[in-house]
Amino acid sequence: MLDDEEQHPDVGLQAAELNIQMKLSAVKRRWFRAFEVNLGLLYLLILAGITARYILVNLEKEHLQANRSMKIIQLKQEIKLLKEKIKEKCPDRWTRFGSSCYFKSTEAKHWQESRRDCQDKGADLVMINSKEEQIFINELNMRGESWTGLTGKKTSGGYKWEWVDGSAVNETLWAPGQLSTSYDSYGVCCDDNGKLKQAVEHYVGYSSKTFICEK
């Protein structure tokens, strides 16, 4: 009788342990299930990120290729136009250099009148953009001084030199000490070394000069 009473607590303890183990197993299964779900979601997010990155890279690549193709087409068109322009014959009394035609006047005029004369010819006062062009212009000018398309412009910070199209002048084309300016100053070609120099139009002896047009 006593032995049976001693065995009952063991049975109850075993049942309690079994119940705890079952609950732990259930908790573990739920935890692993949640882990699997979260891992799956993480995998999907990573896959979505990789896919989105792949799409963006390909779109960017296609965009760059399209831009490159467009630039190549534009460059070919520019080369074609340049070749056609080079083949064109310059009008009488005009001289070709590169893709432009140049006209040296024999009549002396003020700078503004000189520019109007060039514009009436479908051109403008010459704009020199390279050392080679400057050498050519100096040879075309031959002697004396001729107006160019270079003028001193008033700005909020003072004055600056620029060509008639608004582009900046290459300072290496200037003669030494010629970069100071006043409102009435214009660029002329050339000094004894073939460099650009400035002339103030309202000074006596500077008002009228020959000029060089470019188109």
From TrEMBL:
<keyword id="KW-0472">Membrane</keyword>
<dbReference type="InterPro" id="IPR001304">
    <property type="entry name" value="C-type_lectin-like"/>
</dbReference>
<keyword id="KW-0812">Transmembrane</keyword>
<keyword id="KW-1133">Transmembrane helix</keyword>
<dbReference type="InterPro" id="IPR016186">
    <property type="entry name" value="C-type_lectin-like/link_sf"/>
</dbReference>
<dbReference type="GO" id="GO:0005886">
    <property type="term" value="C:plasma membrane"/>
</dbReference>
<dbReference type="InterPro" id="IPR050828">
    <property type="entry name" value="C-type_lectin/matrix_domain"/>
</dbReference>
<dbReference type="InterPro" id="IPR016187">
    <property type="entry name" value="CTDL_fold"/>
</dbReference>
<dbReference type="Pfam" id="PF00059">
    <property type="entry name" value="Lectin_C"/>
</dbReference>
<protein>
    <submittedName>
        <fullName>CD209 antigen-like protein 2</fullName>
    </submittedName>
</protein>
<feature type="transmembrane region" description="Helical">
    <location>
        <begin position="37"/>
        <end position="56"/>
    </location>
</feature>
<feature type="domain" description="C-type lectin">
    <location>
        <begin position="97"/>
        <end position="214"/>
    </location>
</feature>
